[in-house]
Design goal:
By secondary structure, the protein is α/β, with parallel strands linked by helices. The chain contains 15 helices and twelve strands.
């Protein structure tokens, strides 16, 4: 199949999958407010803006957003400009929300950011910061799969066609010399696209033999008797690769640069606090998950999951380029022009003020 046809089919499927979510609750579920982030008395609005709408996933790899919301770091940085959070289940639905103006800023994975940027010909979003690295594992049924070679011929779940983990698994499978049709998932190994929420049940039922998934799904599978066969971080230089970025709508960045800078200040403060207080941060993230979803993670899932994620302001831009190359090789994306996808000037201004080193855009900054 020509790459252009594969791209159209991939984007069409990715756009269709979140429609149930969109129909049920708009572009994202309004996050609950427990009073932890009230506007301080005497605070002033930034840029005269009443509120800023921020999107994220109920996922530990979005821990900066979870902790920043729970502990009030974003609200503190934004003064009287109110934070309005929205929780999403999938990257495509968050991109749709960004495009429609339903959110202004969002935490999101690299593949949806790449797809959103290229689909709009570079006109809808910018990546303005990093958030997390790691937190992705291949977990398998140890009775059926005892080595990496045993993965061949098995059924392995990924979260969604063309999503970040789907691309990573297809690339890894290709490096083993195995052939897999990227659209159907059929081949030397069968790729089963399964929502992270149902993958543990699919594993328990025996309908999949393993999964290449982010946290906390990976640790949920381990709690069900699965074994970590491969940590994706071991495949990357210095064990670092971007799993979560911060994106902004381009017109919002142009119209409200001080608000964007304040959100980045809140993000940097959150990451600093997370890394200095890992246990307290873990509890804060879990509390936010409970508020947003109604259910906290048990310790046997939360503890190993949190430990495998590294929180950083650095967007690890060079790894984004590599991930895009993997999508092209898999036949899910035409070779993209990513120049201009980053605008790290606001973040570097924040980091400089904090005495921290600047981060690099790997030559993919605004022209």
């Amino acid at each position: 199949m020509p790459a252009s046809s594969a791209l159209r089919r991939s984007l069409a499927v990715m756009a269709a999958l979140p429609l149930l979510t969109l129909a049920a609750c708009g572009y994202g579920s309004q996050a609950k407010d427990d009073g932890t982030a009230k506007v301080a008395a005497g605070a002033k609005k930034i840029d005269g803006l009443d509120s800023v709408k921020i999107g994220y996933f109920g996922n530990l790899t979005h821990g900066t957003a979870l902790v920043g919301m729970q502990k009030g770091f974003f609200q503190q940085a934004l003064g009287a400009t109110e934070v309005k959070p929205a929780v999403f289940n999938a990257g495509p639905s968050e991109i749709e929300a960004l495009n429609s103006g339903s959110i202004d800023i969002g935490w999101i994975g690299p593949s949806p950011a790449i797809n959103g940027y290229t689909k709009s010909a570079g006109k809808n979003l910018r990546i303005i910061g990093g958030s997390a690295s790691g937190g992705v594992k291949l977990v398998v049924n140890p009775d059926k799969i005892k080595s990496l070679r045993d993965v061949k011929g098995k059924r392995i779940a990924t979260p969604q066609l063309g999503n970040t983990q789907d691309v990573a698994f297809l690339n890894w499978a290709a490096e083993q010399g195995w052939k897999v049709d990227p659209q159907s998932g059929k081949g030397d190994v069968t790729v089963v696209r399964s929502d992270n929420k149902v993958t543990p049940d699919a594993y328990k039922a025996g309908s999949v033999d393993g999964a290449w998934v982010p946290e906390p799904t990976a640790s949920k599978l381990v709690a069900e008797g699965g074994k970590v066969l491969l940590d994706e971080s071991t495949l990357w230089p210095d064990k670092k690769f971007v799993i979560t970025n911060i994106i902004v709508r381009q017109d919002f960045l142009k119209e409200h640069p001080k608000v964007v800078e304040a959100v980045l200040k809140g993000s940097a403060a959150t990451n600093k606090w997370i890394n200095a207080n890992p246990d307290a941060a873990k509890k804060a993230a879990n509390k936010r998950l409970e508020q947003d979803s109604g259910k906290a993670l048990p310790a046997d899932v939360l503890d190993p999951a949190w430990k495998s994620i590294r929180f950083t302001d650095d967007p690890l831009a060079a790894t984004l380029s590599t991930e895009a190359e993997h999508a092209v090789k898999a036949g899910l994306l035409q070779k993209p022009d990513l120049k201009g996808i980053y605008d790290l000037a606001p973040l570097n201004k924040v980091l400089k003020a904090e005495g921290e080193p600047a981060v690099d855009d790997a030559g993919l900054g605004v022209k």
